[in-house]
Design brief:
Blueprint: E1 3-7, E2 20-23, E3 29-32, E4 45-49, H1 70-77, E5 88-95, E6 101-104, E7 111-112, H2 117-131, H3 138-149, H4 153-162, H5 165-176, E8 191-192, H6 194-205, H7 215-225, E9 241-251, E10 258-268, E11 271-282, H8 285-304
Antiparallel strand pairs: 1-4, 2-3, 5-6, 5-11, 7-8, 9-10, 10-11
Length: 309
């Protein structure tokens, strides 16, 4: 069966276009001008394309090799995205107990992270502190808490500088195994894929003692993601209970459209599931949240189908 993906039309942009990223009270990022790689505002069409060649099926934590369910996910999302004119949506999901995963909208398509990159920034900071043989300073911990919990942009800017800016984040992401993520000097314009965000979540939520992030670092980051303030507990949390998450939302001043992203872990039928949903070209923040939540629920349903043990 062919996979359905959302494709975008290319827009010509000037390499000298001014990019201005300013903080918002809600923790979103406002963009003036366009990045050369930005998801365009032009209408995207839903069309059938051949799936990209799949990587070998991953192993569950217990060692059993299981299948991907990309085709089933595409079929489940087709009716949900039938009205997605002008939008681009991608999702990646993993049932950590069974190892079953699914990706929709993969390939080389990338999206602006907006504030979900704050998880990446903190992971990079924790990795740097590990390598320096130290704990986070009290100032770093205070900034990390508000960066994740309240999506504070000033704290993110300070910690982004602390990890070495775009070059430092790229270096950390290479260690985490991200292959399609490119950091930007304006951190909210970092480009990524849903599959890479799933890889980042695996680095944070793994129980492997030999993982890149040490157990204490992972526990700390998970704890902050589990305590985001109440008005930011939307997105992937709709797909299960006990959510530990981070959301990103960014209106485009040039188009009036929104990027709405959500990453995190939820529990479904006792199974921990990692979910990353990226959505661009959303007409309003509220519509984008509804889109992300419906996609997250469908994706988790696919990886849990037939795996109720």
């Amino acid at each position: 069966m062919a996979r359905h993906a959302l494709r975008r039309s290319a827009l010509s942009v000037s390499l000298t276009a001014a990019l201005v990223l300013t903080a918002s009270a809600a923790g979103g990022a406002y963009l003036s001008g366009r990045s050369p790689r930005q998801v365009p505002a032009a209408s995207a069409s839903v069309s059938s394309v051949s799936p990209a060649a799949s990587a070998p099926a991953p192993a569950a934590e217990g060692g059993a090799v299981v299948e991907d369910r990309d085709t089933e996910l595409a079929a489940a999302l087709e009716p949900l995205l039938a009205d997605a004119d002008g939008e681009a949506v991608s999702v990646a999901v993993l049932d950590r107990d069974t190892g079953v995963r699914a990706v929709y909208g993969g390939g080389e398509e990338t999206y602006d992270t907006a504030s979900i990159v704050k998880v990446d920034i903190l992971a990079a900071l924790l990795l740097r502190a590990q390598e320096e043989g130290r704990a986070l300073t009290s100032t770093e911990r205070a900034r990390a808490a508000v960066m994740i919990g309240r999506s504070d942009n000033d704290a993110a800017t300070a910690l982004f500088a602390a990890v070495g800016g775009a070059d430092g984040l790229d270096a950390a992401n290479e260690r985490f195994g991200l292959t399609s993520t490119k950091a930007a000097r304006a951190w909210g314009l970092t480009r990524t894929t849903a599959a890479d965000q799933l890889t980042l979540l695996e680095a944070v939520f793994t129980d492997d003692e030999d993982a890149v992030l040490e157990p204490a670092s992972r526990t700390y980051l998970r704890g902050l993601m589990a305590r985001v303030q109440a008005d930011q507990r939307w997105g992937v949390s709709a797909a299960g209970s006990g959510g530990a998450l981070k959301n990103g939302w960014m209106p485009r001043t040039a188009t009036g459209l929104w990027n709405i992203n959500s990453i995190g872990r939820v529990t479904v039928d006792g199974h921990p599931c990692l979910v990353a949903v990226l959505a661009a070209g959303q007409r309003t923040k509220e519509a984008g949240i509804a889109r992300v939540e419906s996609v997250a629920e469908a994706a988790v349903g696919v990886v849990r189908a037939g795996n109720d043990g």
